Amino acid sequence: MMQTDVKATTCGAGATTVFNGPARVKGLTVSFATGGTVVIADSTKTLFTYTAPAVAGTINIVIPGEGVKCDTSVIATCTSATAVVFYG
User: Fold this and answer.
1) What sign results for the dihedral spanned by CA atoms 68, 72, 74, 78?
2) How confident is the model at residue 56 (pLDDT cuts 50, 70, 90)?
3) Confidence (pLDDT) at 4
4) I want to staple 39 with a disulfide (CB 3.0 to 4.6 A). Which of 2, 35, 77, 88 is the partner?
5) Once rounded to an integer, what is the mean pLDDT over residues 46-57?
6) Number of structural domains in the chain
7) For residue 41, is it within any domain?
8) Is 1 inside a domain boundary?
9) Domain CATH number, residue 43
10) Which residues partner with 2 through β-bridges?
11) How far apart are CA 1 and CA 46, in angstroms?
12) Domain span including residue 42
């Protein structure tokens, strides 16, 4: 298993290119209004979706193992939410 440095990018409303190249998403910190969503995609292919509960709040999401693999790029799309995406 090869280790890499973990980096972070903050994502606001709409789509954000977190990293333009292959990477693994290790985790997220999501702050949301009621029913906010965060979608993690590899280019246009959805890999992970988080839908917030019907109350405002913040949650830390830890992805086990080596994370979610994105072969071409990491795109985060936030709706009624912001996220910090940790990747490496």
Assistant:
1) negative
2) very high
3) 76
4) 77
5) 94
6) 1
7) yes
8) no
9) 2.60.120
10) none
11) 25
12) 7-87
